[in-house]
Structures are given as C-alpha cells and as structure tokens.
Amino acid sequence: MKLFEITTEDISVDEVVARLANPAIGAVVTFVGVVRGETDGREVHYLEYEAYPEMAEETLRQIGDETRACWKTIREVAIIHRVGRLQVGETAVVIALSAAHRREVFDALHYAIDRLKEIVPLWKKEVWTDGAEWRSEG
Amino acid sequence: MNNESMNNEQIRVRVKFFAAPREAIGTGEIEQVVPAGTTVGDLIGLLTEEYPILRAYTRFISVAVNRAYVGMQTKLHDGDEVACLPPVGGG
Fold first, then answer.
1. ipTM over cut 0.85
2. Residue range(s) defining the domain that contains residue A21
3. Which residues in chain B have Cβ-Cβ distances shorter than 8 Å to A11?
4. Does A81 map to a domain?
5. Higher pLDDT, B26 or A40
6. What does the DSSP 8-state code read for residue B86?
7. Which residues pair with A86 in a beta bridge?
8. Which residues 89-128 of chain A have a CB within 8 Å of chain B?
C-alpha cells in the first residue's frame, strides 16, 4: 500500500489511517486539508490542483523520512494529496502519523504540513466566479 | 575527438512546465537541443529568448533536474528531464 501518493480520486481519512495499521501503535494523528469556500473575501468557485506527480511523490517520501529522523517516536508517515478539480469542502490532502505514544506527534505533524507547502511540487489555482489565479505560499 | 567536434556536441533535454508558466507558453513539455556543457541557468536564458513571456516568471522559478532541486550552475546531460517549478503551494 502506498504511503506517499498523488491521486485524482477522493481521499478517505479512514482509509489513509488504515494504511498505518500496526499492533505496535497507540496513537495516530491526522491533518485534513479541505477546500475553503472563500479567500481574501472572494467566493471560491472551485480549485484546480496540479502536480509534478513523480517528483511530488518522491518529495512526500522525503518529508516522511525527515519527520521520522527528527522525531524517533514516529513510526510511520502517510501523505496523500489529491489533484485535479476540487469543489469547496472536498479533501485536498491527508497527512497521518503513527506512534507508540502521543508525545511529540503534534509537533511532527506540524513539521510535515509546513514542509509539504515548502518543497512539494504542487500548485493550486483558485477559480472564482469572475476570474482565476495561481496561488502559492510565498 | 578533436576540440572542434567536442565544442559542437549537442545534447537533448526534456523541459517541463507547470501552473502559470505552463499556461503562459501553452505547453507542458518541450524538447530542447543545446550545446554540451549548457547549465541550468544557460537553458533558462535560452528558453526566455524563445518564449519571452517566461520572463515574467523566471525570477521566481526553481529548477529540478531528474526530479531533484538543483542550482543554476548545474550542468545538463543528454536525456535530462528539466522541470521549471514556479513557487509551490500544495495543501
């Protein structure tokens, strides 16, 4: 089962968490990124996500490796990002981390989402009723 | 091989574009034949001559060769996959 994936399909949080199933774990923490209906006061019609899929999956794996190197308590990392046209309320990304105990999982999760926004070749076009724009974190 | 033929050696690279620059030039991938020894920075220069509209983006673009981020001094090799990456924004 892939732990780092760019997909055009709907993402189910439960299904991603299930990918981490292991009797050794006692905690799973997840981040779910969903499409917001407005930015800067403008109503979003839909979002169009684009990826450089091969490199994106490699950089997602790199983030998993970095996270586990920094926080030894993290057992597994899964990051699934959807691309294509997403409607308001749909899930764009799920990040799930598993550990034996809950300590430090939140810090590790925070790191993973920050790194995703920093290095993974993914782009987001906001489409409003009256225009569109590619948006980045910068 | 004498010096002259070495200087004339050409390499072929694939160049990928994404998001705004992809829309601006109207294609996601091109093939480019360049002299051996061409760097990433040289290639970006050649591309902006061919596609002047790219000038609006080059200041912000990062480059990956064969799916790894590289600097502008990196030398290209035959068959390389070069990706012009505008500022990313997943999540």
1. yes
2. 4-128
3. none
4. yes
5. B26
6. P
7. A47
8. 92-93, 113, 116-125
In-domain check, residue B91: no
What is the number of structural domains in chain B? 1
Q: In this structure, what CATH number is given to the domain that contains residue B24?
A: 3.10.20.30
Q: What is the dihedral of CA A66, B89, B41, B82, to 10 degrees?
A: 80
Q: Which two tokens stand for residue B44?
A: 């970006």
Q: Which of A4, A48, A55, A61 to mutate to test the interface with B (most CBs of B within 10 A)?
A: A55
Q: Using a CB-CB distance cutoff of 8 angstroms, which residues of chain A are in contact with residue B22? A: 50
* Summary count for chain A: helices (H), strands (E): 3, 9
More confident residue, A42 or B12: B12
List pLDDT tens digits, range B28-53: 999 999 999 999 999 999 999 999 99
8 A C-beta contact, residue B82 and residue B76: yes
Assign A41 a pLDDT band (cuts: 50, 70, 90): confident
Cα–Cα separations (whole angstroms), residue A104 to A27, A70, A78, A93, A108: 11, 10, 17, 21, 6
B30 vs B33: CA distance, rounded Å = 10
The enclosing domain of A117 has a CATH number of 3.90.1170.40
Does the beta-carbon distance from A52 to B91 stay under 8 Å?
Answer: no
CA distance A137 to A122: 11
Q: Across the interface, do A123 and B91 touch by the CB < 8 Å criterion?
A: no
Q: Using 50, 70 and 90 to split pLDDT, how confident is the model at A138? A: low
Q: Is B12 a domain residue? A: yes
